[in-house]
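INPUT
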Amino acid sequence: MSAPALEELPGPGTPGAAAPEPRGSTGARGQARVAWAMLAPNLLLLGVFLAGPLVWAFLMAFQDKRSFGGGTWSGLDNFARLLADDVFWRALLNTAIFTVATVPVGVLMGLGLALLMDKALPGRGLFRTIVYLPIVVSSLVTSLVGLLLFDESVGIVNGVLADLGLGAVSWQSDGALAMTSVVVMTLWSRVGFSMVVYIAALQDVDPQVVEAARVDGAGPWQVTRRVVVPLLRPTTFFLVLVNLIWSFQVFDVVYVMTNGGPGYSTTMLVTYAYDEGFGPARNFGYGATVGVVLFVITVLLTLLQLRRGTRTEA
Amino acid sequence: MSRPVRFLVCVLVCAVFVLPLAAMVVIAFTPRDALLDDGASLWSGRWTLDNFRGLFDRFPVARWFGNALLVAGLTTLLSVAVNLLGGYALAKLRFRGRGLVLLVVLGTLVVPTQVVMIPQFELVARLGLVGFFWAVILPSASTALGLFLARQFFVGFPDELVEAARVDGCSTFGAFRRVVLPNARPLIAVMTLLAFMTQWNDFLWPLITLRDPDLYTLPVALRLLQTAYDNDYGGIMAMALLSSLPLLVMFVVLQRYFVAGLTRSGIR
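OUTPUT
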């Protein structure tokens, strides 16, 4: 990943380059043995509880498997069903819509807020805290508050609209509006992160470059647009990537706020996979198939974005 | 933009951003009949502690709180230990396959949790862990994120210090324990905060694997309450507030570390 944000933590001393070959009593082989020993607990846990299940999920996708125990191999049956499954296509479309609605807006809002709060301002610390705060609020609480805000009969948003003399809005029974409410809560919980990362990146922008542009007669808007934003490009690519992955894998907010409804209008790939596997159908095989397709798409999107990132930097 | 304009925009934006949290707090203290009469409102003028009283009367809230502390605490301890060790090996020790290990670990960041959940669940069920805290702790203990975070920190660790310890007769591991670890406090603080936050806020996996409401952690129980209370937002928000409070307080106090961790890691 190509972001300045991924560089070293504020560590003691100066950041050095990669370790040179140590000249100690232990040889290279001894060091390798220590290294593997130190990695072992981690790799064991990752292997057993993540890599193993991932491989297993791939195998399940080719099985007719309901609930526990052995399934029977069914070749490409699950995939054939997938292609003819309207709900799957709907979920794919919804996920795409959700991604398009959240990623650009979320990243741009983060950039805007970071620029707004980068320079000295009375109460800046408080402002920043308020925007970060949702980061530590769990997705479950975020979703429950979302329900409270957008409840059709007793919700706060409709209450405010009523006070303004406007009619109630059907946030829950209208598909597009339900999607909107999910998008709004997602942005609320996510924008703070983009802002934090942008603020950190802004610290690294060379003030002399900005000054030079100003001397050359660029206005503040032009400086931002033509100098600062291009310098932030690696950060932007990183944030787009992370937000892309999060959006494509959205689950909690949808699961709690709308549970995919009304109808299938907010069903996402992950909620669909979850419902198939853990819902009444208990169709482990088909649930895994949807999951595997989602995984493959995520990997492709990631690679695509990484390639774009490296190409623009070069 | 001139400074007053920027200030004004910030005030407006923050008013919007603070609204959901304000709503949570206000409704948690609003009596049930006020909600039923006029709907939820940020200023009903009526206040009560009944929502909290009702919670403590009807549910083992203290127990859930203790469970949450125990599970999040143990997971954090295990994950920080495991990731410190692994991260150091990936950053400072030379061995064949190091690049590959790093690549695979980073690759796991793209795996959607819910996709592996079905086999993961079957796995912990077969291991006989369902209904025990270990079902939650073990799968969450090793995070690619934590490992990566540690590695990034150690890459920047001065080699001279490690070298000096080696010259003084420390073994590879001894140098790590005596010299590197004591100097890694900022890293440990960040890792602890992130691991604790992640585990504290996780609800779906514990909900599936713990099964017994007596074992629930506070945030998981919140999901249970959502169904139990149906539309009683007062009770739900009181519980939501209780479950968020520890992290909100921690965040405000330790904001610097949180921000450092989030910026450096890139993942929540």
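end of record. Residues 72 and 199 of chain B are 5 Å apart (CA to CA).
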